[in-house]
Specification:
Two copies of one chain form a homodimer. The first copy, chain A, has 218 residues and is α+β, with helices and mostly antiparallel strands. Chain A has seven helices and ten strands. Chain A binds a DNA duplex (30 and 30 nucleotides) through residues 153-156, 180-182, 190-194, 196-200, 212.
Chain lengths: 218, 218
Amino acid sequence: MKKYINVLTGSILFKNIKEEQINEILKLGDFNIKEYDKNECIYHKEDTVKKFGILLSGKASIIKEDYWGNKNIVTNINKGDLFAEIFSILYEEPLNVSVVSTENSRILFINISNILNSNKSSEVINIFTKNILRIISKKTLILNKKIEYLSKRNLRDKILSFLSDQAQLNGNKSFYIPFDRQQMADFLATDRSALSRELSNIQKEGLIEYNKNHFILK
Amino acid sequence: MKKYINVLTGSILFKNIKEEQINEILKLGDFNIKEYDKNECIYHKEDTVKKFGILLSGKASIIKEDYWGNKNIVTNINKGDLFAEIFSILYEEPLNVSVVSTENSRILFINISNILNSNKSSEVINIFTKNILRIISKKTLILNKKIEYLSKRNLRDKILSFLSDQAQLNGNKSFYIPFDRQQMADFLATDRSALSRELSNIQKEGLIEYNKNHFILK
DNA sequence: AATAATACGTTGCATTTGCAACCAAAAGGA
DNA sequence: TCCTTTTGGTTGCAAATGCAACGTATTATT
């Protein structure tokens, strides 16, 4: 545990909370840590979960899969991130998304309800609650972004709105996206070959330049 | 104000909070109330907002509009609902969505940050914070649902996943959706005529029956 | 180094979709 | 009641897209 405490102190979840208080909260949340190999399933979409996860090391993706198996990456998860979809636990609904490790990963699980509903109305719990609020607010913004991309009437506009946001995010016209081609297609809810074709078209018209996951906007 | 207090006591935002304490919170949040005619703009997407709104009476829609003016209804807002997108205030980002009244409406504005950051770490504030958490969690679920629809590879599947969720929501194969045809098209990010055509096709194949905004799944 | 596996681009084709134009029915106003 | 406005269905057409199949370059494995 100790070796990961700096991941936790660095995470938004425990922002403004001291190390010894973090331990206190973890205990309250009946925490445990589990390791996963690459491509292992961390949560399955039909699970109803009590605890939710924080990625201590490695990488993972939140994936939505439809009836026929079309996969759609909702978000990538990086170190320190928590799986905000898991807020469905507050409503005790099934997840309806799966979480899959994309690298060897180590995950901390805690029972949020335990913490939120602990009768101790201490200052720490208060800060913790606000931190969660902040995280899920950000999640909402990200989901809204995604809806913005998906709402475009054609693939070209989906691509361009996504790329221009990525550029903005990186503060540079030249940037790397965190997806390979198939993942990008899944994220934009389209077909890989259709995506390749359209990227190619856009490049021919001189709007962008790209190679693999590196892009330059013109 | 008094005539709306029951709207507030009935809302999730003030759940488990007594009437006199609601007043206390409202004061802390520097509240005000404003009226809007049908089709008036309540928030514009470029606004950066300090206060956010709770619909006391009437109806409104959260609308995303792209560069070329294609409108996309993100959600409808009903009595007691608050505009969760406005959680961007926690990040002080521009809204990037607009809120428009679809009926004559009356809206209560409060400054959430004032309340959350008030040093009084009273029990009431604590409950209030949890209520907000609950609301935005639900919002996240709704956004996830929407992403699920929009991620379908073709219009038919968008329609069918939307309708089957609506049926589930109403607990009945026969139900009314809260959209007219144009709004439904905007919500599913497609063209109205394309939507009509596909609905018609699906009906011909006997999967659904419909008339205006009333649907029956087979 | 040889081989296998993966990632990405390309292309043909059938289907879907956006768009525009038009018509009919229903609702609202004068 | 008559006229206007709104709402929704239909259709033709061009363009976009999903899908499958295939080729090549890159990366991983032995």
